[in-house]
Design goal:
The structure is a single chain. The protein has a domain of 140 residues. The strands form two sheets. The chain has a three-stranded antiparallel sheet. Strands 2-6-3 form a three-stranded mixed sheet. It contains five helices and six strands; from the N terminus they run H-H-H-E-H-E-E-E-E-E-H. It is of the alpha+beta class. The C terminus is likely disordered. Helix 2 runs antiparallel to helix 3.
């Protein structure tokens, strides 16, 4: 009977040739690296600290945002820019509207005063033509007048400003005796300026007859008009 070889202790060193023998079903064991770096890689790393090599990778200083955060930031920035553009356009439209309404109100007051000067007087044809052109231009621009002269105050009280009214009397019997400044409004109903009026009462027939200096028609006599003069220094004369 052959003798079996004795087994060595568990912690004994393997034989000298054991490291080079392949394991069962595997490849030969690789030799450990000595840690010597490639001179070319070392030179490249020294020249560019951010260069990526096989042994290292650049790490950003801050953590990268996830994709949904980037998309949200883009959408929010776009919404802010759009809102800023809308606000700028809104301011421009308001400024243009203010200039338009201010010009319309001033032109309406000027036309009202011009009509007051021409009313009941033999006006030159040029002034009458200017008044008609003013009225046509304002009408085409969508500007309307509110001249409530002769109307009952109870019907127009909400849209007029009273400059003067009788101290006593029934307010329901008051009428608009005179329009100092006409009201101005647009076609869409926007009120640019309220009318400014003077209130009074409708004179009774007895008051008309008792009023001094009135004719049978209830109107005061017209003042005599001076004869036209060619002297520019005389009152009522024409100048060039």
């Amino acid at each position: 009977m052959a003798a079996t070889p004795e087994r060595g202790p568990l912690g004994a060193d393997p034989p000298a040739g054991a490291a080079s023998r392949p394991e069962r079903g595997g490849s030969p064991a690789s030799t450990p690296s000595t840690g010597t770096a490639d001179p070319a890689e070392s030179a490249a790393s020294a020249a560019d600290p951010m260069a990526i090599t096989e042994s290292e990778r650049a790490v950003p200083e801050h953590a990268l945002d996830p994709p949904f955060a980037l998309v949200y930031d883009v959408v929010r920035r776009t919404a802010r820019e759009r809102e800023a553009g809308r606000e700028e356009m809104r301011k421009r439209l308001e400024s243009t509207h203010e200039r338009y309404t201010g010009l319309a109100a001033d032109a309406a007051v000027a036309l009202h005063e011009l009509r007051g000067c021409l009313d009941g007087e033999p006006a030159p044809a040029v002034l009458a033509s200017i008044a008609r052109r003013f009225a046509t231009a304002l009408d085409r621009a969508g500007v309307r007048f509110d001249d409530p002269v002769g109307e009952a105050y109870a019907a127009v009280g909400r849209r007029v400003d009273v400059a003067h009214a009788p101290d006593s009397g029934d307010e329901a019997a008051m009428i608009v005796a005179r329009t100092l400044r006409p009201g101005v409004l647009l076609d869409d109903g926007e009120v640019i300026r309220r009318a400014q009026v003077v209130l009074g009462f409708v004179p009774t027939p007895a008051e008309r007859e008792a009023a001094p200096g009135r004719t049978d028609d209830g109107e005061p006599p017209a003042a005599p008009r001076p004869e036209p003069s060619n002297d520019p220094n005389s009152e009522g004369g024409s100048t060039r």
